[in-house]
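dumping the sequnces here before i forget
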Amino acid sequence: MRTWKTYLLLTAALTLATSPAKADLLFWSTQAKPVEETQKMRDNVLAGFGETVDYQASDGGPWLTRIQAETQAGSGTIAVLGGLHGDFTSISANLADLGAVDLGGAAVNPNFMALGQLGSGEQKYLPWMQATYIMAANKKALPYLPAGADLNALTYDQLIAWSKAVAEATGGPKFGFPAGPKGLKHRFFQGYLLPSFAESTVTKFRSAEAEQAWTKFKDLWSYTNPASTGYGFLQEQLLTEEVWIAFDHTARLADAFNQKPDDFVAFPAPAGPAGRGFMPVVAGIAIPSTAPDMEKAKALVAYMLKPETQIATLRATNFFPVVDVTLPDDMPASVKASGAAIAAMTGAADAKPALLPMGLGEAGGKFNQVYIDTFERIVLANQDVRTVLDSQAEALRAIMKETGAPCWAPDKPSEGACPVD
Amino acid sequence: MTREPAHRRRARQLTMALVILLGAWVLVPIYLLVVNSLSSPAEVNGFPKSFVPSFDTGSLGFFLGFAGVTRALLNSVLVAALTMVLSIGLGAPAGYALSRFEFPGKSSYRLLVLMTRAFPLPLLALPLAVLFIRTGLDDSILGLALVHTSLALPFAILITYSLFSGIPLELEEAAWTLGCTRLQAFRKVILPLVLPGITASAIFAFVISWNEVFAASVLTIQNRTLTAFLLQSLDVSPMPLKFAGGFVLVLPALIFIFAVRRYLFAMWGIANR
Amino acid sequence: MGSTRLPYLLLLPSVLFLGVFFLYPFALVAWEAFNRDGTPTLAHFQTMASHWKFGTALTNTLLLAAVVVPIQLGLALAMAVLVTRMTRGRDMALYVFTIPLGISDLAAGIIWLAIFEQTGFLNSMLQAVGAVDGPRIWLGYQDKATIFLAVVLAEVWRATAIMLVILVAGMGLIPKEYKEAAEVFGASPWQRFTRVTLPLLRPSLQTALILRTILALEVFAVVSALGGTNLPVLMSETYVWQFDLQDRHVAAAYAMVILGISIAFTLIILRVLHVPKEART
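..and the predicted 3d for all of it:
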């Protein structure tokens, strides 16, 4: 009996297993992972493509493992890959050249196009959507702004004073920072903190200005909710009012503005002595060299960059377009709020745009780890700033030498590997 | 005569009190999950939290309308069922062999079985995925069930081993002298006695397969399981959906355990006679 | 059929199975830990051990296992004994005790975070009874002990049932006659438990302890939900090296360490809870 049943079950499973797979295009992505966003990507963005697209969002681990496996096996099911710039750096060799894809005249941001080459000379990925880090605050915090402070032109000193005032008034630290395992904190140090103080990400890593930057950040940290080391999406803590002032990227603040548009304000990241450092978060789309149907995959990529698709994507994910489009008036509250803050930040007189790391290849993760380790040692483990910077600078220098990556903004262009002074 | 029942009653009351206390320890967190699943987003984000749900089904409703949930549920059940059958089919004979025989290589075998469980699966997923893509097992119910079986097998082997060890060999030998073949003796005498162990193995196989997320995310694409489908995105979803999704995932596993619970101690009928 | 060949025949299917689905991928990953561009080396273990988080991760993992597993063993034994003493409602009680089995570690993390977070249920309750003025921060990075405690509670809640089920299945096999005999000789309930039940339960105790310890050494999801980056454990570091730092060699080295510790603990438990030959015949 038992064996018979087993046999039946096995046959059933094998039938299911070998049933011809539908010829859907598999869109394998690390973005739009929250269930609602995935749903919107399927229903509102990809439904208009014509072919059936199977949009699957997964964690970075399974995402990477699957691509590596398909590459090693030499055949695959993934048609299109979606991910952040950093997700692509290590799999660059397995990506098809998208240079010849006909984008139908869409004007794609040239800086992002250059990033998408991953230092290879081929168009490894096409920019897909962008976000950036901004600040958001509960309106209850506004009365505690230091005298004379302009929300749209805040400095780090004012932010610290403000957070201090709020902490003292409410009896607990109310600044929130995404320092959890899934938070993108390294981008803050690379693109915001260090450029604002040292006008550099790499070269002046251990300069006196960098030391000052970390010391300031440590000051800010004393008014930061200590549970921040578990935070990944600040919209949650804004909504629960665990924090009143928050720093995170637009897509991870969106839910707060959409749920309670009247309770929150968005504003630019603060400025340091060297300017108002900020960095884009760029997501790209790529096609693995093992894609089952290259032509259809390229058509899908081109479809993703159409202005209408880009606007639909913005509605679904809160990531902004990478092509020139005019946004309609009926955008969600989150888009309106963060759009204004981004405009104020990028258009500020002291704007100091930083680029995402370039030319690091597989070392991208280790490069980020240098900044994460620096943070954990200085701020969490309370180690001496100078000592930590000196020792982490060694690790940074080794990575730059190994990869030979030249400097990128805000560091001055270099001949050969970007130096660490 | 009068003292004895009073003493017994006190003991029974103490037992009941402890059971209720431990039951509460288990149930309260589950209850809080249910409360959050049945509350409106504003309540989930609010403070202080209410301990009574407002029966807002918006968040739960979202999952029922989520494209592909039914299919994923079916896939999960199939994978779990197959895992159960495979791990018991492969594990019970091995458990019996371990308990009844002394043979060279026995300890190496036990170590092999335990190693399976002591090595992080996410690292094994890459070579397994390559193997599956090459052999056509990729993206199939069977393929995933095979991986889950390797996770559940150590449980099946060791639990059946420890149960077979608890059954005196004399019992089996008695059946042989009464003219049973080894197989008959096993089926008629031993099997009923180890049914709880088999059930325990089945429960483990089911819940291990049901809750496994990493291999499922890598090895299934069109045939996603419910866990791969929902769980890996829950931690980044807004709070109300987090809880509703958690609830949706937990429910089928609870129903399964409820359905098989009595086989877990079918034995007691015999032991307490 | 000779009984020299029978055991091997019974083991063969599982050996073949594990050979293909475990040993083959395992060998490939293990090799990653020991080679650099094809030449054998221990450099990856050096990289791992010299990283500033390795010691903390190792200590945290061992400490968690050392605290969690004994509590779970005691609790599971208590639950099993209580259930056997019940006359009515036994089914229901055992079912309730086993419920956490069905809850994945990721889901358990979500549930316990909802309890311990600043605006969570614990603070709601404390505030309702007036024990605190405002919501207290439980999971702040300075309060490593509180985070540790929260993780212990969540793990005990989540994974005690694994041991319970194994022990209950084993307890059912203890013939009632033994207990009755002990009762006749005037043994107290505690004596009956320690002198009769526990020794006879040894095979199940062994299995339960080994499996639970191995799983405890791989603890990850609950720690990461409640502790964020504050409580690095071996498994979380394995993830970081494999997926963030994308160094498969060092990740494999971590995995080998987890495997090594697991085997060491298994051998210790096997030695301490040795099942004497007589118990098996």
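Chain B touches chain A through 48 residues (CB under 8 Å).
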